Amino acid sequence: MRLYALTAVAVIFLTGLLCAQEVGPGDAPYVPTKLEWAALELQMSFGVASTSTYHVSVAFIATADGRTVECLITYAPTVSAATTKTERDMAQLHFDSYARSRRWDWLRINFRELPVLPVPY
């Protein structure tokens, strides 16, 4: 009986070791930078997706300089300049509030606006 128990424990232990070694690329540990966290939180909280009725999107992307979040605003050619300006102004307000709440005076934002053709739904 004791031999069976030891064998079972050994099998469970070895199975655990084998499973632990089978790590896929998505399972590898990763620690994001503060800039990457900022871009992610801004996107989750304030990003806007284009829809079939609202042809503007707002995306926040970390840049390579280590201190700037790019705010990419894309819009259909039919969108008015006033609507695009409103989205930009709102993104600036959200960004300012976010950076102030974190006390990250090093954090910057850069805007890029691009017209795109709407995706048919």
Morphology call: extended
Q: Helix segment count?
A: 3
Number of strands: 3
Q: Compute the separation of the termini in Å.
A: 66 Å
At the third CATH level, what is the topology name of the domain at 34-115? Answer: GMP Synthetase, Chain A, domain 3
CATH class of the domain at 34-115: Alpha Beta
Strand percent estimate:
15-25%
Uncertain spans, ≥5 residues at pLDDT below 50? none
Q: How helix-rich are the residues, as a percent range?
A: 40-55%
Question: Would you identify the CATH architecture of the domain at 34-115?
Answer: 2-Layer Sandwich
Trace the largest sheet across and list its strands: 1-2-3
Biggest sheet overview: 3 strands, mixed
What integer value in Å does the Rg equal?
A: 24 Å
Oligomer: single chain
SSE order, one letter for each helix or strand: HHEEHE
